[in-house]
UniProtKB/TrEMBL annotation:
Protein name: Twitching motility protein PilT
Organism annotation: Halobium palmae
């Protein structure tokens, strides 16, 4: 988990939404290099804002600032070169997978079908919790803060988490 990721690091909507809900998208931009997302994710975030999820503005503001780039060619690549992906995933996950694959980057998603398909394409993969674990291991984030963010995602955003604490996902040889 603590090793560096292949660049770019491509974020899907769930991951950006999670971090936006804890006002921590800026933390992502200061701890990871070459962050990207895709047009469909931006659209999903904008639609979420329009229906009342105001916290998504944090993510949109970071996208507008250019701190997270937009892989603008992903929709066209998806349609031309990945028709099977387009039929198996939602637009945001599909475009993010294609952007990560074509750039030999890392896909950051919590979506089960996207994770399974990423494995088929041999794409480096992590998720929201994986980023928390990486932050703790690299001492960019305390366990307490990571757990606070995780609890917000679970309790306020109905995020499904396989763990109740980041400590459960830390490497066996990690020492606090």
């Amino acid at each position: 988990m603590s090793e560096s990721f292949s660049r770019p690091v491509v974020l899907d909507a769930t991951v950006l939404s999670n971090y936006a809900s804890t006002n921590s998208v800026a933390w992502l931009t200061t701890t990871l290099d070459d962050l990207q997302t895709v047009p469909a994710v931006r659209t999903e975030l904008e639609q979420g804002c329009e229906v009342g999820y105001a916290y998504l503005e944090h993510a949109i503001d970071v996208l507008e600032s250019g701190q997270i780039g937009i892989a603008t060619t992903a929709p066209e690549q998806l349609q031309q070169d990945y028709p099977e992906v387009q039929t198996r995933l939602d637009p945001g996950e599909a475009e993010a997978l294609v952007a990560a694959h074509t750039a030999a980057g890392t896909l950051v998603t919590d979506d089960g079908p996207a994770r399974a398909l990423a494995a088929d394409y041999d794409i480096t993969l992590t998720g929201s919790i994986g980023l928390l674990v990486r932050g703790v291991v690299l001492e960019d984030l305390t366990v307490e803060t990571a757990d606070e963010w995780l609890m917000t995602w679970i309790e306020e955003r109905n995020y499904y988490s396989p763990v109740d604490s980041v400590t459960a996902a830390l490497p066996d040889d990690f020492e606090e």
